[in-house]
Design a protein that fits this description.
The complex is a heterodimer of chains A (about 425) and B (about 240). Chain A is an alpha+beta fold. Chain A is built from 13 helices and 22 strands. Chain B is globular. The chains are: A alpha+beta (about 425), B alpha/beta (about 240).
Chain lengths: ~425, ~240
Amino acid sequence: MLISNWGNYPKINANVRYVRDLGELKEYIRAFEHLIPRGLGRCYGDSSLSDNIVSICNLNRFLSFDEKNGVLRCESGVSLKEVLDIIVLKGWFLPVTPGTKFITVGGAIASDVHGKNHHKEGSFADHLLSIELMLSNGEIDTCSKEENSELFSATCGGMGLTGIILNATFKLKRIETAYIRQRIIIARDINEIIGFFDEYKDYTYSVAWIDCLAKGKNLGRSVLMLGEHAKKDEITHEQFIMKEKRKVNIPFNLPSFVLNRVLVRVFNAYFFNKHIFASKKFFVDYDEFFYPLDSIFNWNRIYGSRGFIQYQFVLPKKSGAEGLKRMLEKVSQRGTGSFLAVLKLFGKGNNNLLSFPMEGYTLALDFPLRNGLLEFLDELDEMVLEYGGRLYLSKDARMSSKMFKGSYKKAIEFTDIKHRLDKENRLSSLQSRRLGF
Amino acid sequence: MGWLLVLGAKSDIARAITHKFAEKGFNIYLAARDVEECRKDVQDLRIRYSVNAQAVEFDALNYKAHKEFYESLNEKPLGVVCAVGYMGDQKGSEKNFEEAKKVIDTNYTGCMTILNVVANDFEERGEGFIIGISSVAGDRGRKSNYIYGSAKAGFSAYLSGLRNRLFKSNVHVMTVKPGFVKTKMTEGMNLPGLLMAKPEAVAEDIFKAWEKKKEIVYTKWLWRQIMMVIKNIPERVFKRMQL
């Protein structure tokens, strides 16, 4: 069947199998070469695309939930939405969450996802107590930071290449309510926003949305969003109950002329205004704070049938301000701007071999696929490399092997382990083959 | 809340129905041959919906044990979902009696014997509901799967009679006729995407229809119209068609 991930690029024909039990999984893993596991397909590019795809979405059982200590064990196909639906009512929250809850736990580990609290609480894998996975020979292995730690550090952020994650045990975070106390600050330019990130670093959650079309003295104009879990006595709502909200669906791919420069400008102007008005609203529920785009089903269709690329890079903190400025200038010059540009200051990275975060600034930009885009992104790659930064594998659909090996310092170490675990390179994706594993 | 007995609990449709009813507060008996696999679902249901659940071993083909099986349930269920099914291989069934027999026995005889036991209990109690998962394939025999289709036709007729019998005992019997559903059964088959339903959507339809006490539900709903057309094609024409 024809299949693509969230960016709708690339689209390929693949043999997709849905596994329901471990016997079947073992059968597939032994029968097919070029096999990669896939969850809800929310990575943007080709990380979970291959000739043979094994969907783990039906391995979606909860195995145990220690409500007293906040420890959850579930199969890898359980989505973060399903986790939240259960744990929030009992006063727990995800330790780390990306900007969508429609991803699986397996995917969260394979991408070692980060969220708005990275500077304080690290990435998803930092909260894992243990994982169980099926290796390419069909054997099942357990690993954690302490036990089998090499396998652990290769698997977390390892894009499904070390084995198929079966289940995971992770620690949750105590909350008193389902609400977030939000604070919104407008920054006039890039220097101001960078200053704000430092100034407000004690907030648990922080992220900024940047207007990529702003130029000159407005370059880097942005909205900083800060948040803390609201305490019980701060809110008047029922602690854990949220209002049912209206959802919107984009029913089909929009024609590519819809997303033109004028429209994006209008959108950005509206967006900044909306936030000026919205700044009075202090308490929002977790859906509104963490997953604003989840209320628009299939928002990726806005970019049309050719799809889009989300380009997310990180630059080390010391080179950040200057580097960010240069990158933003280049992007704003090109004009076919980003619908969404999200800026965040990361804290220190962890020891996982292919995990993306490192201390510095990360910026995520959406580019609809147009002629000349791939060449343009290659130019951006050069700049990222020059500053010692790197790209997020879960968003990538096009980076060169040279770029990857030049920017991921532990790529060689990873390849060694991968080779040892999977001599025949059975577990591989379009991405892993492009990057030269 | 009462218990729901789900027969053939490992099927994708059964799993989706289970989740829907558990979400509404039903305790669940998961009945299937592979009781070990069901045990994993038990824990899942408890965690997700804070309901009680229990895995029970049930083999649709072991008719003689059906009465004993039903009597062994600690608390008698308020409702039963019969999702036992086996598509088999049409060509195989034409040549090999054992295969054909397995298709008939699984889809008809096994369902009939267990539901007889259930019906007697419900009739005596004067309460309960039975949801039988039949198929659009039972509405008219086509050369591509008429062995399976004839078993399902038998099952549909059985449910119809049961509904008639139990009406005065306040027991509701619902016949479900799914079209193409994206399940293990249809995996790898080349079917039109527009007519494919996800198991979750089928479960949603079933639950809504159950709440409204419908007698026969097609899911997706479009299949009612499609089958109306198919059933009305004159046999003289139908026999020439590639279906």
